[in-house]
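User: Good morning. I'm curious how heme C would be positioned relative to this chain. Could you predict the structure with it bound?
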Amino acid sequence: MNEHGNQHSRFTLIRNWMGIAGAALAMGSLFAVLCLIAFDFLKGFRRPYIGLLTYLILPGFIWAGLMLMGLGLWQDRRRKRRMAGPSSLPRIDLNNPRHRRILNLAVGAGFVFVLITAFGSFRGYEVTESVRFCGALCHTVMKPEYTTYQNSPHARVRCTACHIGPGASWFVRSKISGLYQVYAVLTNSYPRPIPVPVKNLRPARETCEECHWPEKFYGALERTYTHFLSAKENPRWTIRLLVKVGGANPTHGPVGGIHWHMIVANRLEYIPADETRQSIPWVRVSNRETGRVTVYESKDNPLPANQKNRAVRVLDCIDCHNRPTHIFHSPDQALDLALWLNRIDPSIPSIKVNASRALVESASSSSQTQALQQVAEKLGKEYADYKDRQKIEQAISETQNILRSNFFPEMKTTWQARPDNIGHRIFPGCFRCHDGRHVSKTGDTITHDCDACHTIIAQGPEPEKTAVSLSGLKFDHPGGEIPEGMLCNDCHNGAP
Ligand code: HEC
Ligand code: HEC
Ligand code: HEC
Ligand code: HEC
Ligand code: HEC
Ligand code: HEC
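Assistant: Good morning! Here's the predicted structure, ligand included:
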């Protein structure tokens, strides 16, 4: 026979509407999750949305259902108590086989539930860490960064390896700021373009250095730039540099070179003039071994006295390598490459200038689709009388490819919104400090010597007319004498 109350409590869940709704919600969601997990095992999800649904949203519904059931039960008990006066809790008697069966069932069900939850949380973690989740879920917002990432040397490094890094504290921080980002996307209130530099990016020492350590010695790297000038014949001009990267491993070569900044004994700090860090009026170098400290200040735009207590930033990898993976090519760079590789035929008159203009104008369209159309129309009209239609068709389609990989009108993101700090031709880059105008109290200047960072080993027009010298050439500027005191990016901006 049943003890008093048992008969009732078995049916109360079903009598209470809240309990019924909760049970239905929990069972329905559980069923859906199980089906989706089976699907994930058999085929794998192609879309990040489904992972999000399976491992984060639906489990939320299961919990909500269980909570509703509990609430229903509690309400019911309260009502009963009010009607029947004080009652005691049900007694569990392990000698009663029925009680034992119920207990076994409860423990078994609890175990399965914990197992599913653990697996779900693990997959939930994996899903939110995946490249597809970061890059493709908020499609429009992340499209510029995701597209450029896929074309970069880091295409197989996970977003989270650079943006979050190892350890729990940054993981938690990133998930909290991630919640705000989801809110900004849902309410369409995110800024376009996404502002750079990224505030609160984890220090590069803890991310980049998981794979590239500062002591590693690179020696000199050879770089070849093949430019096409803006004259009608698209004349070619090649420059070859040996870039003196160096390093800090004395067993492999002399310590020094460009990676001198990263040598552990040196500490380089600076105060930027504004948020974008594109102008640096104040620099301090400390040598941990000798204890020597030198402060360099810009003669042209010194830091106002009231800003001297602003936060000092320690120079790290990202102050130079701010575009290791989200690389947005300027029209100039992208077209030089396409012409060099003959994807666009350099014999088409003025194609460099015309294609470049078409790209720049299309950047102000409202969508990429519209921009692509605009490029085709503009170049089609420009070369309406040109005989070799196939060459023109190919030039148009290649210009459109450049647009697809580098121009994102929906997010107002192009090379102009994404300055690259390596080099000094179209952005200030190294010349933010190395402009020859940063001096110390004792009169030392941060070097502006053209041979300090690289050696020009070849330069000139056609390959056969190129001057070559391994001991270094004086720079022959295709644009004529550079006026005293002017920096490269005063004239060069990435588009003709
Ligand atoms: C090799 C390291 C690395 C990887 C991998 C990486 N990022 Fe970045 N990302 C950076 C750095 C460095 C910056 C900061 C640039 C700055 O502050 O100027 C950045 C900046 C960004 C920005 C701000 C806008 C911008 O272009 O500066 C977004 C958005 C972004 N990353 C998203 C992603 C997504 C999504 C992925 C994966 C698809 C990803 N990142 C993978 C290094 C990386
Ligand atoms: C998970 C490992 C990993 C992390 C983290 C990582 N990288 Fe890399 N990086 C690579 C790999 C792999 C390559 C490609 C190596 C090659 O081409 O030889 C590479 C290449 C590079 C290159 C050479 C690019 C070129 O043009 O060939 C630079 C510069 C670089 N990384 C800088 C960075 C910076 C800066 C960060 C931090 C924001 C970073 N990396 C974080 C693995 C990583
Ligand atoms: C003062 C600026 C500066 C700093 C700081 C700096 N680098 Fe570099 N690094 C360069 C330059 C310039 C090059 C060579 C040119 C290039 O990559 O195009 C280079 C080259 C490299 C390369 C080799 C690229 C290749 O193509 O093989 C790697 C990898 C690299 N840096 C990683 C790092 C890491 C990691 C840090 C931080 C520990 C760092 N760098 C700090 C300026 C810097
Ligand atoms: C924040 C300012 C700053 C930036 C940005 C910067 N540098 Fe430097 N760099 C310095 C300072 C300061 C010194 C040391 C001057 C001294 O005390 O001798 C230095 C020294 C050097 C040296 C000489 C090292 C030696 O052996 O003596 C090289 C080479 C160099 N930098 C290359 C670069 C390159 C390439 C870039 C751009 C990718 C760059 N720097 C960006 C501040 C900067
Ligand atoms: C502080 C270091 C530094 C100094 C000083 C410096 N450069 Fe450079 N330069 C670089 C770096 C870094 C690059 C880019 C290398 C790369 O892309 O890998 C570069 C690239 C170049 C290029 C190739 C650009 C292109 O697009 O074709 C030329 C030309 C050049 N420098 C000329 C000069 C001249 C002329 C001077 C003297 C006024 C000078 N540089 C001083 C660091 C320096
Ligand atoms: C007073 C303006 C001015 C300054 C400053 C200047 N340039 Fe130029 N540069 C030109 C002009 C004009 C051309 C010719 C453009 C053409 O015909 O396409 C040119 C051409 C070039 C080219 C050939 C490829 C191209 O873009 O057409 C390179 C490379 C170059 N300059 C590098 C530099 C470097 C490096 C510096 C800094 C050390 C520099 N320039 C400073 C105006 C300038």
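Residues 131 and 463 are 42 Å apart (CA to CA). Residues 1-7 have pLDDT under 50 and may be disordered.
Let me know if you'd like a different ligand tried.
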